[in-house]
Amino acid sequence: MLRRRRARPRPEGKLHVPAEGTVVALEVEHVDRVWRSRVEMQQGARLVVAAPGAFGGDAVAPKKGQQVTVGWPSKLGYLEAEARVVSTEDGDEPSWTVEVHTSALSQRRSAYRLETKLEVTVTFEELGSLAASTRNVSEGGLAIELPDRYEVANGERVGVHLRLPDGIIAGQAHIVRSAPMVPDGLEVVVAFQNLNEIDAEHLRQYVFDEQLTRRSAGVA
């Protein structure tokens, strides 16, 4: 069964395009599949992207003029650009050349929350450092499951050390809300405060990669 395609965001006035080296999601008109790719060259609205087959699995060969959607994470949020295929190249490094004609913000920064369990250490002023796990993560913050119930206050500042598969992100956050879990434990939602750009990009890319993997598998 084909997945129902989600509604496309409305185009914005400014044309956004991914920079060279950006990992992107590619969707081809009338094909129910999402592929991972990379921008090899960007000149204005024209992009040369690696043919998705280079990243594993077979990819459809688009026709000249066929519409494709290019998606990627940014500081603004998840952006999508609608483009037309200009040409395709075969050989040792197959690629597609596409021309972007509209772009739009699909998900605002921090809007997408990835359901996942990761190790995290939360440091409170009164309670000290507590080992916990995440329920979901986004560029803007985390939902954290503490193993026991504690007295915490909304607005309280905490330190966060989040372990991603390829490294650790550390920063300051504040508690947005908390609620008891059943049968025990405490869920605490925190929002990052001025996460440095390197860590923000690291987290942004992790969430995007996981989202893309799940969408490609048809589970998100």
The tally of helices reads: 1
Work out the strand percent: over 45%
User: What would you say the CATH architecture of the largest domain is?
Assistant: Beta Barrel
Helix content: under 10%
Q: How many separate structural domains? A: 2
What does the overall shape look like? elongated
Here the CATH topology of the largest domain equals Thrombin, subunit H
Q: How many strands, which pairing sense, and closed or not: the largest β-sheet?
A: 6 strands, antiparallel, barrel
What is the arithmetic mean of pLDDT? 87
Give the termini distance in whole angstroms: 15 Å
The CATH homologous superfamily name of the largest domain equals predicted glycosyltransferase like domains
Structural class: mainly beta
Which spans have pLDDT < 50 for at least 5 consecutive residues?
Answer: 1-7
Radius of gyration: 20 Å
Describe the overall structure.
With 220 residues, the chain is mainly beta. Helices cover 9% and strands 49% of the residues. Strands 1-2-3-6-5-4 form a 6-stranded antiparallel beta barrel. It has a 6-stranded antiparallel beta barrel with strand order 8-9-10-13-12-11. Strand 2 (35-43) and strand 3 (46-50) form a beta hairpin.
